[in-house]
Amino acid sequence: MRNLDQQLVWAFAGVLGLLALSSLVGLILKAAIRKPEAQATIRNLNARIGAWWIMSAIFGLTLVIGAIGSLVLFALMSLLALREYVTLLPTRRADHRTLFWAFFIFTPLQYVLIGIQWYGMFAILIPVYAFLFVPTRLAIAGDTESFLERASAIQWGLMICVYCLSYTPALLMLRIPNYGRPAKLMLYLVLVDQLSDVLQYVWGKLLGRHKIAPVVSPNKTWEGFVGGVLCATAIGTALWWMTPFTPLVAAAVSLTITLMGFAGGLTMSAIKRDRGVKDYGTLIKGHGGILDRMDSMCFAAPVFFHIVRYFYVP
Amino acid sequence: MRLPLLAGMIAGAARLISGVNVRWADSMPDPKQTIYYANHSSHLDFVVLWSSLPAEVRVRTRPVAALDYWSRGLRRALAVNIFRAVLVARRQPDHESSSPVDPREAIDHMLEAMGDDNSLILFPEGTRGTGEEVAPFKSGIYYLCERKPGLRLVPAFLNNLNRILPKGEFLPVPFISRLTFGPPIFLQSGEPKAAFLERARDALCRLRDL
Q1: Among the CATH numbers 3.30.750.210, 3.40.1130.10, 3.30.870.10, 3.40.50.300, which is that of B4-205?
Q2: Do A93 and B173 count as a contact with CB atoms less than 8 A apart?
C-alpha cells in the first residue's frame, strides 16, 4: 500500500463511482427501451460497461502492486496488441524468426529498460536498434518478395504496439520535484484518454449526425468528437490537483491527450479498413481487441510523456 | 500412465499461444463417437483442436499420429502417455519400397482404439503442408467409414497455425488462430471412394473463409 497516496485513492474512488453510475444507467436503459434496433446498441453498451469494470479492476490492482505490476500489465498488453496487429499482416514464411525477435526479445527488453530506469536506451531501442535489426534479419532470411513492405510493417507494429504503448508505464520513471509518486500521472493519462473515447462514443450515440471520416471510421461524428473532446478536457482540467500542472496547463494538456487519442483511433481504423476487418480482436467483450481499446493511448502516451518530461523534469 | 493434469496444462498453454477463436458453424459439439478431421500445417494442430473440444468430449478423443515420427523418446512420452495417441504406420513417401505398410493393419488399429465410445482426431492429408493448400486426402477415413457404418465425420478447419509454428521451426510466434467446426458428414451407401474423399475435402475447405 506504500505506493498509494491520498490523491491516487481519491481519483480511483472517482472511477469506481463513475462505473457504478454507468452500470445503473445501463440497467435503466435496458429496462426502459423496448425498440429492437436500439436493444442491440444497449446490449453492446452493457457489455462495454462490464468490460470496463474488469479493466479498471486489473489496472487498480497493478497500481496497488506498484511499478512491477504496471510494467507486467503493459508488457502483456503490448504482446497481445502486437499479436492482433501481425495477425492482420500478409506475413510470409521467412518473417517467422524476425517476428520471434519482435515478440520475445524487443518487447520484454523495452519494458525491462523502463524497470531499470535506463531512459536513454528506452527511447532508442526500437526507433534505432530494432529499426536496423528487423530488415537485416529479414534479409538474412533471404526472401525478397515485398521486402520493403514486410520490413516496414513489422517495424511499424513494434513502434505502435510496443514503443508507443510503453510510454504509459514509462511515466513512472519521471522524477518531478514536489509531486510525489508518478503513478498518479499514469492514472491521469489513462483517465483523460479513455474518458475521451467513452465520451466521444456517448455523444456520438446521442447526437451524432455528421460523419467526420465516413470511409475510415463510420462511427466517428463531429458531434461525438466535439462533445467528447470538450467534456474530457473539462474533466482533465477539473483533475488538475492530481497533476503537477496549473488548471490552465491541465486544460491544454488534456486537450492534447484527447486530440492525439482521436488521431490514434482514426489511424488504427484506417489499418482495419485496409485489412478488411471491423475489430482487431475479440478479447474485450463489447470493445473488440486490445488494439481497439488502446489505439488512442498509443498516440497520446508518447506526446504526454515528452510534454511532462520537457517542462517538469529538471 | 495417464497424466490428465499435465494434459490440461498443455491444452491451456496451447490455447494461450494460439489465441484460438473457436466456432461451430451450423453445428454443435456432441459427445457421440466422431472422427474429427482437419487440415494439417503445424505440430500445434492436434493440441489446439483437442483443447478446443468441450471437456466431456475431450476426455474421449484421441489423436492419430504417425508411428515413424512419434514413436521415439520424448515425443513418444508426450504423444502416448499424455494424449493417448493412436500411433499408426504410414507409407513413407521416400522409402516406398523398403517399408511396405499394410493400410488395413492401420485401420484395424484405429478401429480397435475407438472401441464403442472413443473419438479420433485425424489429419487425412497424411503430413503437414505449408498451410496454403489442402492436399488430397489419403484413403484412411473412407475405410474407417466403410468398416463402421454410420460413423460421424466432423470437419475442422485450422487457420493460421502454420504461421504460429510452421513446419521446420521449433519456436512459436503468437498469431491469433481460428478453428471452425462444420456439420458432420457420413459415407453414403455405395458412394465411391474417390467421390467420398473429394466430398470430405470440400466440406473441410468450405470452412476456410466462413
Answers
A1: 3.40.1130.10
A2: no
